[in-house]
Known about the structure:
Blueprint: H1 2-14, H2 21-41, E1 49-50, E2 56-57, H3 72-76, H4 78-81, H5 88-93, H6 99-115, H7 118-121, E3 125-129, E4 173-178, E5 187-199, H8 213-218, H9 230-233, H10 236-255, H11 265-272, E6 286-303, H12 313-322, E7 328-331, E8 337-341
Helix pairs in contact: 2-6, 10-11
Amino acid sequence: MRSTRILRQYIRELLTETTDKKFLAEFMPLYDEWEELQAQYGPVHSGPWTDPEGVTHFPEEVQSVPIEDQPRWVRDDPKFYSAHEDHPNPRRATFSQTHAEENIERALLTLYQKHAQQDFFRGITLYHDLNYRAAVQKPFSSAGLHFADFSREQYLSKDAGTCQSQSGHKDVMSCYGSLSGKIHASYGMILSGWVVFASTTDLSSQTLRTAHAGVREKHKSSGLPKRTSPGRVHSPKSGERARRFHPMKQKVSKMRGQELPDLTEEDIMKIVNSVILSAKDAPDDRIPEILVANWCIEGWFCRASSVDQLWPKPFWRRAKEIGITKPITLIDATGTPIKTVYIDDYNPTEWEAP
Length: 354
């Protein structure tokens, strides 16, 4: 506990060094509140690990959340939720958080909106990778919770209309961001919308396909949320590791005839806190996760050199049947856009093969 307090005090001393000191000054009480809440539930483990001899070790201590603090549906299907209840990230992914956790995360989103520069995000490419597989999946069967079937083709029906004339879709969408316009994915959607949160790390946000009928009913007026936690986007231990290993990296660089500069306090803060509020916080190109509300489809993309090489065939075959109207950007292996095509031009010679 003493080392944790020292780390927190060190971060507070850095507030005068960072350009986002107003955000961090308001963020740190939320971070402390989150850490204290998680301590009540037990130790936050880092998952199983494998030793050099190939033996997998599982954490000896995990969190245990009081059943009265969990949503009703956790009790309705204990078999599914018991596999996700011992860590704050899986609880978030499966909509099984406690009210206290949700309240802190909502406060974090409100704080983000206060300081984020939306003009910056309007100037970058937002894209959703339809080939991405979430870490948490809905169960194959459940105790009457009525999980909806998930299909990537369901997004094709959301293509209609222009983003200027239609209201955005309510469920918050997770996507990547690109400052250069390169798209590092195989196929998916190019979006526009209001940025709810952005980070240089995976946010472990809610997985929409784990929202059963009860969850959807709860959020029917506002749409399904996606959030993250102060503990997910702020890691003093990461800064400590960076400071410890950086001299070793400098030695290796020197052996290769290169000079690696010392880490500045601002460098350390960017490692510790992964929140992206504006251009100065962003990496060189790809932003690992952005949460977007009121989104609409500006277009589609696919890694292909010609329109008849669109992949996967069943998806684009269905797109042809529906008659999507938005442009499709073809990209090469480096993510660089090649040209723009439309689904009307899609006429593959072999319709049968997937």
